Amino acid sequence: MENRIKELRKKKGLTLKQLSEKVGISNPTLSRYEKGTRNPKIENWHKLANFFGVTVEYLQGQGNDNCKHHSKEELQYFNALKYGYCPYCGHKLCN
Question: How many CA atoms lie within 13 A of 89 on its CB side?
Answer without folding.
Answer: 11
